[in-house]
């Protein structure tokens, strides 16, 4: 093992050698590169980012708008294998997560939608004063460089409200040049209006309810994906005080042998990180200020566990010394299932999808009160099932019930959106247009986990989201699926639809029973790849891993900044919120780092 030495021209402009830097950031993903950019604005501060992946700016799967459709399963996707899912017919599914500069912002669908304001406000109830919609909105705007839609794009259904957007940020958002007015948009609009869905003039206003065409993270003039590397690193990579090293972090190293077995023990101090280079060499980089873990909702808890932070039962079984007793690490994983129905139509595609966000009232109609009461009565039983499904003695029934009750109130009292439907008619060169809907339950009650599979291989975690562990998740998904079919078979859309292609009539006939609907959704799901909460920003008593300043409990100078800290699912897509959180996190670090 050796210690990395950098020329001090990199560190402070002198001529001697230095063996440490101010900040080490683990992961060059969506959040990590934001923090790296902002911290390195101070030329006296040195920043090193350690990332297993590579610079993919010349990869067409990354910069071409349609590249993401072929990117999953390639070398720029970790393509994690999940544990077999009993709720999904024992399928072994794959979770897509980006591997390279930009992380998952390289391979996602580029959707830029924030979420419902009440969901962010609920974070304060979880022990995070000052974390709410009002405080996040300025950071959404700070990150964003919005392009107002063209006249032709407005005619095709794009709408916006200028007060909710930023125009000077790093992240380009807008609409592709392929969005143009066709026969598809009027049919979509009239059909959803006929089903009593409202049009939403701007999905980024703090309410996503209704239907609209949302912006994407792209350069609206050049039709190029705008990922985190293109936004936050490429423009500043010439700075002498910032560097990306290709390597896989194995663990955080500690300055003291003191062990923080409980919340009253002294905080431990990180001295650096140990990582494996591309050539397989084990090296150590010392840190003078902080280690910031931004490896994503899958890898960040693995880094913490490898470093001795987590559930003692898990760590000891892997032969890892316990540094901080923190059972919430890797727990509370919330992931969504994604489903699809496809139809044949003679309409002309419009080049973009309509986002449709629906509430429990939209889904359950006259049965809403009954569903609400039954759901509330089942919360204790669901909490017990979640705890029973976790074999790590990390969860507490009363704590899990508290989390589920907050979510129940969001759905039924605050009327946040419960499901999303992407309604699309998309033409692809050399093939027939595709018409249909992808849809998912935005707020599953089921909880899972991600943990190390061994102390030796951080790249082979055990990930179990426990899909459909809570039966309400399946009920909400089925109700959404029925709404999708109702849309495609209602006027005026039905006038242009000649039949359903996926699934076939043998799987889901016109008069399908509830059992057939349930079987279809259990057997046809894919993973939505929106994992979060595995290092949740919550009070320690609720199983939280980081405090409101994103510092890991029991440590003096380790923080987590990525999707793993989001304590609840949101009715949006993660990218927009991750940029905002990382912008705010960078400010917090600047103010509070010693």
From TrEMBL:
Q: Which residues form the signal peptide?
A: 1-18
Name the active site residues.
530, 573
Q: Which Pfam families match?
A: GMC_oxred_C, GMC_oxred_N
Q: Which residues form the Glucose-methanol-choline oxidoreductase N-terminal domain?
A: 98-121, 296-310
What GO molecular functions are on record for this protein?
flavin adenine dinucleotide binding; oxidoreductase activity, acting on CH-OH group of donors
User: Which family, according to the similarity comment?
Assistant: Belongs to the GMC oxidoreductase family.
- Cofactor(s) in the UniProt record: FAD
InterPro entries for this protein: FAD/NAD-bd_sf, Glucose_Oxidase_domain_2, GMC_OxRdtase, GMC_OxRdtase_N, GMC_OxRtase_C
Query: What species is given as this protein's source?
Result: Cephalotrichum gorgonifer
Report what the protein is called.
Related to alcohol oxidase
Keywords, sorted A to Z: FAD, Flavoprotein, Oxidoreductase, Signal
Q: Which superkingdom, per the lineage?
A: Eukaryota
Give me the residues that bind FAD, please.
Answer: 30-31, 104, 249
